[in-house]
Amino acid sequence: MSNKEVKAALKSARDAIRNKEYKEALKHCKAVLKQEKNNYNAWVFIGLAAAELEQPDQAKGAYKKAIELEPNQLLAWQGLANLYEKPNQIDVKGDLADVYQKLLELYESGDKQKWCDVCNKLVELYHQEKKYLEVAETWQKLIRMKQEEGAEKAELHQLWKKMIQLLKDSTRNQDNKTGQLLLTAFEHALNSADTVPGEDHQNLYRDFIQCLSKFPHEVARLEKACHDMMALYPTVSYPLEVLCLHFVHSGTLSEKALHCFSRLLEMDASSGPGIIGFGIKCLKEKKYKEAVKNLTEGLQKTDQCPAAWHYLAEAQMKIHEHRNAVLSCNQALEALGTPEGPNLRWKNLTLQLKAETLIKIADADAAEEAIKALEEIVDASNDPVVSALRGQACLNKGLMDQASKISQDLLLSHPDLAEAHALEGFIHYSQKNYEQAEKSFLNAIEKKAGTAEYHHYLGLTYWFMSDETKKDKGKALTQFLKAAKLDSYLGSAFCYLGNYYRDIAGDKSRARGCYKKAFELDETDEESGTAAVNLSVELGDMDTALSILNEVTGKARPGTAKWAWLHRGLYYLRTGQPSQAVADLQAALRADPKDSNCWESLGEAYLNRGSYSTALKSFRKASELNPGLVYSIYRAAALEQILGKYENAIATYQQILKKTENYVPALKG
């Protein structure tokens, strides 16, 4: 076949392809290849025809052969790109990206429009594959090309905005280089905006700041962006809110942070981040109740702020709201998820705080949960304070051997650690080894004098050690006073101060004040509540006694607060108010249906009200529960007599006289 014939055959192949006669085209090409096996155009036409005949492998082979022959010719690369772009082509995205890269190289010095079209396709391909770094670098090349061509500012602005859009999901699996390119795109977009200030520009600034807040290492850039936006948009609170949450999360309360909190609250008194900031300020100033109030309110208005939940738990712990503090720790941990970087620090701090709080609850279930929390702390084995907490949790769970082992190890490895000596003290105290406990708590106080719990336990040690140490003003009393001064929310310290003033010093008025304070701090402390009421009665101050009882019964759920219902019922009984007495004594019995004395008092109340049949049932119930209650048996007999059941009455009187021959009321009856 002559050169002329080759050209004619290639023309026939081209015409056949144009007429969609692909098999015919293949025949012409094969004829050419028999003569010239390295004919570039013949291989390209085979690729084209085979692709149309749904023979992708043959098409790919033909294009690759053509490329091998002339790597810098466009046709084969274009054909290969068209082949790979077909929807039936699977697992070719990597190959297609390489083809696009080559096409960019070939178009660069020539057709700029086609270069831009291929560039767009390549970016779209990388975006589908979530290859964000390649997206960013390729799109930047496109922008550079447009800049070299002298594109208008408005077109460049749209291109930078498009780059932001393409990279907006990249912050989830952030690599530093992509992140920097995204932030650069924001800065270019902001600088190229037409209307400043304006709504679009403001929204773009907001997105930029939100993006910056996801980068822990871009603190300076975040602060600058917030201040720049505040200067441009002084009535918009968003940059201040981001800045406040940034300070909350940083865990430092600088003058700059305080200024930011107060400025935000001046602008918007209902701003969640501002209220949270104020709550943290209250916590640092030891205004714990105010801190709890503000942090709770701020968190209701702010999404996902784990640091604020941690601060709330800390404030709740300070006022001994231990169960609420555990719930707040759980909220913080849920918000943190599976953290890295600075969030990992918050997770460790929160787990430790949760464990401390659970240990204060001091039951076996809470101890088990505390041990689990401590196990989750990263690098916990290297922290002696965490080890001491684990020892306390083991002690609460009754694992004495494990607690003792941890204590001994800590005292050897960290002899100057207050928590190590305190743990030893708790173990001795639980075993009633009071003399050893005293030494341990004195050592702990020497290392860390400002811990109320150590003084309180030393006070308890003296209280139970002997009558001498209990009565010695310089021992138990001094330690309880120090504990109460260091922690004004420690109800137990005030309860024992009440015990001291009542039982040792004989000062009823001061004792009553201490019990009242203890009960105000912990409304579940029945011992303090009962003592405050009894002492108020003894001091002739029924108003105080009743106000305590009214407060407790007003809040009590059915079947609870028996002591308060019983005390108030007996008061109504003494003061001739039998109907109120009946209601309160019934409420007391709902809490404890087996209290024979309570049934006896209820019988007395019914009797005073004139409800004889019900009174009779109550006295019978009392004597069933406690056959030794002679008064109840006598009252039942007397009521049978009143109700005309004489035979029953006589039998009951005789029953009493068998046990107590000279029981005068029964003889008289």
TrEMBL record:
Renumbered ranges of TPR repeats: 40-73, 562-595, 596-629
Gene Ontology cellular-component terms listed: Ski complex
Residue ranges of coiled coil: 3-39
Record Pfam families: TPR_16, TPR_19, TPR_6
Keyword Chloroplast included in the entry's annotation: no
Gene Ontology biological process: RNA catabolic process
Keywords: Coiled coil, Repeat, TPR repeat
SUPFAM superfamilies for the chain: TPR-like (SSF48452)
Keyword Protein transport: no
PANTHER family: SUPERKILLER 3 PROTEIN-RELATED, SUPERKILLER COMPLEX PROTEIN 3
Protein name, per record: TTC37 protein
Organism expressing this protein natively: Oreocharis arfaki
